[in-house]
Amino acid sequence: MPRLRIDHIEIEIQDGATVLDAAAKAGAKAGADIPTLCYTRQTGAQASCMVCVVKDAASGRMLPACSAKVDDGMEIDTGGDEVTSLRRETLLMLLSEHVGDCEAPCTRICPASLDIPRMMRLIAGGDDGGAARVAKRDLVFPATLGRICGAPCEKVCRRAQYDAAVGIRSCHGALGEGKPERAAPSGKTVAVIGAGLAGLSAAFSCLLRGHACRVYDENLAACSTLRDRYGHQLPAEVLDAEIESIRVMGADLMLGSVVDPAAVLSRFDAVIVACEAGAPAVPNVFRAVEHAVPVRSVANGKAAAEVGDAFVRGVEQEQSNRRYNSAIGQLRAEEMEAYGVTRLVDNPASEAARCLGCDCRKPVSCKLREYADRYGIRGPVNRHMDRPAVAPIQVFGPVLFEPGKCIKCGICVDLCRQSGGGLTFAGRGLDTRVELPPGVRISDDLAVRCAQSCPTGAMAVSACEEPL
Question: How many angstroms separate the Cα of 67 from the Cα of each of 10, 155, 456?
């Protein structure tokens, strides 16, 4: 049995095993450090993506871990600088050929990151309750913002290239009160000083995470500044109903209370200052700025709650919660017809049905996006040639196939080959593509298995939704 070292860990493994097998045997860290896109246990190594590259220091060779066989005396480095740099270059090459959005332009520009395409799909499908939960979770004040938001999302709506932007603001403004599910009680307590949009959004976000929350404000009514500024266009009953929903969730509103942040430090695990009061420079005090743009106040409150939540749970807060985002950008004139296939609904029954669904259906499980984040890639990726053209979405029963996101790993082709036929490769070189030959059908079950094994958002089950 060959003996080798994986990241200085000596192991012995059966002859014929791969370096990937050896890394798994060496331990969780070595195994987890090797990314894979074109490998599954069922299909084995396709050796097409090369992101699993490792270095054998004994020979100086770079090897694909998924297919390279172990040899006696190997000294495998799974994550050194040279290996990391090569993986990053490989990912950049794959991303330069990627044509698709990780997040829809409207969601990307929304300061509060409203998952607009999902909300629209739920409305169009008749699930107003589900849409209201999405809007409440992301916007906190969806009805209020539906009347006073400047709607930056509508300014970048891709539908406007065809006729007119979708009325996103009116859609979430008309939804009823959503009730997102709260996490189990955490036993942690948070004080929020300031009951404006930022403070109440911070309180709502803390409550969703299971923390008990008390909100202080010197005014007798919450959101007093907002009322003064927008009273002519914002009915008091709309704002009051959304404030009451936060109280019903468990927020203890202490209105008419003047509180010094330093005075409550000892009674709470974290304090969020959402007013002009001075904040002590201590680790458990965070600030949520009230912004002149209402939706930015909501975003600031959510961001402060996220940082406070990480603190009270004792976990490291990431420097940025923004993930890598692939973006098509403006459609070229010759691409509009192809992009509209399956997206443009004839005679839409509602405003929501006009949404083109520009987002990705696998924003969390897409391994290409995960590895872009892991290796520090931030968009946009510099392309050495023109962006590949947008190709129409194809529908295989319950599965959507977006060719522009396909990395041609071969997993779906191999799964179909094992099952007697279906998807196959066509073309050569840069024109290689996955397609279903004329006259060939693929069963719904096989299509779903292909989608579940697809490492990117190229194939996804249309009925499944992943959270952002």
Answer: 20, 48, 21
Whether 371 maps to a domain, the answer reads no
Looking at residue 160, its pLDDT comes to: 97
Task: Compute the Cα dihedral for 457, 378, 161, 157 and give only its sign.
Answer: positive
How confident is the model at residue 277, as a pLDDT?
83
Q: Give the containing element (helix H, strand E) for 192.
A: strand 189-193
Range of the domain at 216: 189-311
| Structure confidence at residue 421 (pLDDT) | 87
Q: What is the pLDDT of residue 384?
A: 73
- The token duo for 6 is 């994986």
**Of 48, 69, 95, at which residue does a domain stop?**
95
Q: What is the pLDDT of residues 180-197, one digit of tens each?
A: 999 999 999 999 999 999
Q: What is the pLDDT of residue 342?
A: 92
Q: 79 and 149 in one domain?
A: no
Number of domains in the chain: 4
Q: What is the 3-state secondary structure (H, E, C) of 266-287?
A: HHCCEEEECCCCCCCCCCCEEE
The alpha carbons of the chain give a radius of gyration, in whole angstroms, of: 26
Query: What confidence score (pLDDT) does residue 345 get?
Result: 87
Give the per-residue pLDDT at 321: 66
d(CA 410, CA 432): 11
Angle at CA 348, nearest 5°, toward 346 and 350?
A: 175
- Is residue 392 in a domain? yes
Asked whether residue 250 is domain-assigned, the answer is yes
Cα-Cα end-to-end distance for the chain: 46
- Assess if residue 145 is contained within a domain: yes
Q: Which stretches of the chain score pLDDT less than 50? A: none
Rounded Cα gap, residues 174 and 194, in angstroms: 27
Residue among 398, 409, 194 at smallest CA distance from 304: 194
- Asked if 311 and 84 count as a contact pair (C-beta separation under 8 A), the reply is no
Quote the pLDDT of residue 279: 81
State whether 276 and 199 are in the same domain: yes
